[in-house]
Design a protein that fits this description.
A: 185 residues; mainly alpha; rod-shaped; B: 252 residues; globular
Amino acid sequence: MATETNSAGLTDAAAGVDHAASAPGMPQLDFSTWGNQIFWLVLALLATYFILSRVALPRIGAVLAERQGTITNDIAAAEDLKARAIEAEAAYDKALIDARAEAQLIVTKARADIQGDLDAAIAMADAEIAAKSAESEKAIADIRASAMENVKEVAKDTAQEIVAVLGGTADAGTVETAVTARMKG
Amino acid sequence: MATEAQGEEAGGLVFHPMDQFIVEPFFGEGAVAWYTITNATFWMALAVLTTFALLVLGTSRRSIIPTRMQSVAELAYGFVYKMVEDICGKEGVKYFPYIMTLFMFIVTANFLGLIPTAFSPTSHFAVTVVLALAVFLTVTVLGFVKNGTAFLGLFWVASAPLALRPVLAIIELISYFVRPVSHSIRLAGNIMAGHAVIKVFAGFAAIAVISPASIVAITAMYGLEVLVAFIQAYVFTILACVYLKDALHPGH
């Protein structure tokens, strides 16, 4: 301590500054400079306080609040978009299901239509076939009837001829009655 | 310069670790009057300018996506704001500019003091005593204005057994008045000690054999002092908040 004190005194002497109070060796305890330091400190603190309270702090506070607001808005917008995406997906799914159901309906209807057409065509064909076969049957019946008639004619004629050949005189009416009677039997 | 000359004259190791704290006129020489612009004035002004540059110029663009400077300014703001809010509660936010002023002045003065050949205003008791007294007086006045005589409940520990309360009251009273002392000496002492130790190591660097170890030691101490510069500013600020909380919500 003694050396220090001594050297400090010497230094001051060398610098040509009269620091009588700096003798204890700690410039902090040199009370002659306290007034100076306190004066400038108060000035510095006031300056800092005015800079902070008037300009810096409101500005930084505003920037932080604005950023918070922007982030909140962005998150809200993102959530909104997400909800819309989910909605769109639901709509898409619904459209898909609807389309599938409609397709099913169309297929069923088409099948039913085709079946109906087919049934109608079959029925028509059946009716035609029935008509044709009835006609054919009638024709056959006619042919059969006419054939019987022909057979009857042939029989009468033959019988008359046979009677004539045998030498009898054949009454046409008698022969006919007889033949008809025979043919019935 | 004078120091070196002295050392050579003495022909051995001479340490002047405290010379760096001498307050002297910044322009010319002479006595230090209360209005003289001194090295202390200069470095205090630099601290104010640094605060201005960081918090005002750094945020001048008010960008939503901050620049580096603006990030640091916002970080400092958020750091102190959260401290005040956490410790003092919502009512304490009103006093945030005062706390922020203390913090910014101390932290910038501490860091500027770490520049080689710089002067640390915060290493002087004149500065820290004013800062601590400002906090102490504000808190005491505020405590009585806000709570009236209920503020004295701070010294009357209602949760303790009745017999113990007078004893505790004396202890509390002493600890209350010791606050500004410890508050100021802690800051100035830390800064002063660190700078003085660095200076002592620098003195050892004059011996060629020891100088490498001395330089390593200076580097290590410097790293530690960077931490101390911030931590002491933080400690001073957080204690100011704690004292302010006592004024706003007395009682334990």
